[in-house]
Amino acid sequence: MNILLYIVLILIGGILGNRRLLPEWVMKYMDQIQFICLLLLLFIMGVSIGLDEEVIRSFGTIGMQGIFFAVASIVFSVLGVKLIAPYVFSKGGEEE
Amino acid sequence: MSIAILAAVAFGILSGIFVFPSSMESSMGLFINIGLGLLLFFVGIDIGSHRGILSKIRRIGFKVFLVPLMVAIGSILGTAVAGIIMGVALNESAAIGAGFGWYSLSAIELSRHSAYLGTLAFVTNISREVIALVTIPFIAKYVGKLEAIAPAGATAMDTVLPVISKATNANVAIISFITGVVLSSLVPVLVPFFMLF
Q1: In this structure, what are the phi and psi dihedrals at residue A22, rounded to the nearest 5 degrees?
Q2: Is some CB atom of chain B closer than 8 A to the CB atom of A8?
Q3: Per the CB < 8 Å rule, is A70 touching B128?
Q4: A49 → chain B, closest CA residue
Q5: Tens-place pLDDT, residues A2-47
Q6: Is A94 left (phi over 0), alpha (psi -120 to 50) or beta?
Q7: Closest Cβ opposite residue A42 in set B8, B41, B73
Q8: pLDDT tens digits for B141-197?
Q9: Do A41 and B35 lie within an 8 Å CB cutoff?
Q10: Buried b (16+ CB within 10 A) or exposed e, B107-138
Q11: How many residue contacts between A and B have a Cβ separation below 8 Å?
Q12: Which pLDDT tens digit goes with each residue over B48-82?
């Protein structure tokens, strides 16, 4: 059950951030630290896709079909959320 | 931002194919978990340092659940329409859409029906994750911040959350996490459900 671990990690981070328990310089460079870690994670995710011969082989055969499915579900999801976005942010939840 | 993301993923895939030995494959999961844990911790710090966010989310109330609902409907409708165009059976297309980007689970579930279906679910949902990573900064900028959650689907709570958090704000990051949790719990229910037909 990874969900519990995720919640715990976000909560610990949340408490540290909320109580201002981190040194000033860490908060100052938070954005950059986060972005570098993010790129590193994406690189590792890419490597694990590339290392998986099964994935590479199946992309050759039904890659286009899969990409079409993926694009269609993304487009319809975005449109769906667009329909309700004004309602969700109507009062109190305004965008920053 | 999108270019950096695309470059990191593409560079990773190419290094995976050409540089790293395949013996490393077994340890990749651990690396991903460590990186992911670190980033979720950062997302937490970000959310925590913006005070008053929880009360804001509380004011939105049950309406936050409209986001996963619309993403679920949109994802399934999207693959259903695509399936009709490509001549794939409706129940199979819907089941693939109900993977919501969680490729490992949807692929395992569907490969019990046929290897082709399992592979298609895998390719679709892994493509969804990669496309989400690259397009979210654009969608956040030109369509809307809440809409930026949509491409991620179930991955809105883990692998894609750091990108959403960076492209939007702490407020949307919390809604994103909630959306991911709801969608992830729907995958093991909905994928087998559509295969009943």
Answers
A1: -95, 145
A2: no
A3: yes
A4: B13
A5: 778 888 998 999 899 888 888 888 888 888 888 898 899 889 988 9
A6: beta
A7: B8
A8: 999 999 999 999 999 998 899 999 999 999 999 999 999 999 998 998 999 999 998
A9: yes
A10: bebbbeeeeebbbbbbbbbbbbbbbbbbbbbe
A11: 301
A12: 887 777 787 888 888 999 999 999 999 999 999 99
Burial of B68 from C-beta contacts in 10 A (0-12 / 13-18 / 19+): buried
Of A35, A44, A87, nearest to B32 by CB-CB distance is: A44
Residue located via tokens 């654009």: B138
From chain A residues 27-66, the ones with a CB under 8 A of any chain B CB are 27, 30-31, 33-35, 37-53, 55-56, 58-59, 61-63, 65-66
Whether the Cβ atoms of residue A74 and residue B128 lie closer than 8 Å to each other: yes
**Which of B48, B56, B74 minimises the CB distance to A93?**
B56
**Spatial distance between the Cα atoms of A40 and A5, rounded to a whole number of angstroms:** 21
Q: Which residue of chain B has the CA closest to A90?
A: B60
Any residues with CB less than 8 A from the CB of B184 and at least 6 apart, and which? Answer: A3, B100, B102, B154, B157
Average pLDDT, integer, range A54-69: 85
Q: How far is CA A92 from CA A87, A89, B117, B176, B178, in A?
A: 11, 7, 44, 17, 18
Interface test with B, best of A24, A25, A77, A83 (most B CBs within 10 A): A77
Report the 3 state secondary structure along A31-60. Answer: HHHHHHHHHHHHHHHHHHHHHCHHHHHHHH
Q: What's the DSSP call for residue B51?
A: T
The token pair that represents B141 in the structure block: 């900028």
Q: What is the ipTM of this complex?
A: 0.88
Share of chain B above pLDDT 90, in %: 57
Nearest CB partner across the interface for A58, out of B119, B166, B175: B119
